[in-house]
């Protein structure tokens, strides 16, 4: 099947053409995604599904005068992979199990040790870290409380986690 018929079938939302598209272009999309995400194989299927859905939903934005259909599809897959990496990095959390003895409970004997660990951070970062990971506030709540934009909060928490990891 040639690309023109495939594109026409996808534009008409004919699932038969989607299956044919997956058979023809699936390996190409998967290759582009794997090359982009590296060793993050746990998110491969999700990105591939997002790319297929993105192509299915946005087929009308394909312009044959700008690129070949194969290159356009590869570009969609690549940008979906980049978005997934950004999303994963944004929500990368410190696994408290990785930090031995890190329990923040004033009723337990490890309270002093927890306080010492958090003293590594600046006072402001320590308060943000406590509110987020210990008291259970969301980033939206913290944005309102601290008057710091959410994107800056993500950066501050990310730097705080890196500091904790490097010092511990």
What does this structure look like?
This protein has two domains: 1-94, RNA polymerase sigma factor, region 2, helix turn helix motif (Rna Polymerase Sigma Factor, Chain: A, Orthogonal Bundle); 105-167, Winged helix-like DNA-binding domain superfamily/Winged helix DNA-binding domain (Arc Repressor Mutant, subunit A, Orthogonal Bundle), CATH 1.10.10. It has helices at residues 3-11, 15-37, 44-57, 69-90, 111-118, 123-134, 139-146, 150-167. The protein is built from eight helices and no strands. It is mostly helical and 168 residues long.
Percentage beta strand: under 5%
Coarse shape: elongated
Helix content: 55-70%
Give the ordered list of helices and strands. Answer: HHHHHHHH
Number of helices: 8
Which CATH C-level class of the largest domain is it? Mainly Alpha
- In the residues, how many domains can be counted? 2
Organism: Anaerococcus vaginalis ATCC 51170
InterPro entries: RNA_pol_sigma-70-like, RNA_pol_sigma-70_dom, RNA_pol_sigma70_r2, RNA_pol_sigma70_r4_t2, RNA_pol_sigma_r2, RNA_pol_sigma_r3/r4-like, WH-like_DNA-bd_sf
Protein name: Sigma-70 region 2
Domain RNA polymerase sigma-70 region: 23-90
């Amino acid at each position: 099947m040639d690309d023109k018929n495939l594109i026409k079938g996808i534009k008409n939302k004919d699932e038969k053409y989607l299956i044919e598209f997956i058979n023809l272009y699936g390996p190409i999309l998967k290759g582009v995604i794997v090359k982009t995400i590296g060793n993050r194989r746990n998110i491969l299927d999700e990105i591939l599904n997002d790319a297929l859905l993105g192509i299915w939903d946005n087929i009308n934005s394909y312009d044959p005068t700008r690129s070949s259909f194969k290159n356009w599809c590869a570009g969609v897959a690549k940008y979906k992979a980049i978005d997934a990496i950004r999303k994963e990095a944004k929500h990368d959390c410190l696994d408290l199990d990785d930090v031995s003895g890190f329990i923040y409970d004033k009723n337990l004997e490890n309270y002093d040790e927890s306080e010492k660990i958090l003293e590594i951070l600046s006072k402001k970062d320590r308060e943000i870290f406590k509110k987020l990971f210990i008291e259970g506030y969301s980033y939206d709540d913290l944005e309102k409380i601290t008057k710091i934009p959410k994107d800056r909060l993500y950066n501050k928490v990310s730097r705080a986690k890196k500091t904790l990891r490097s010092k511990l």
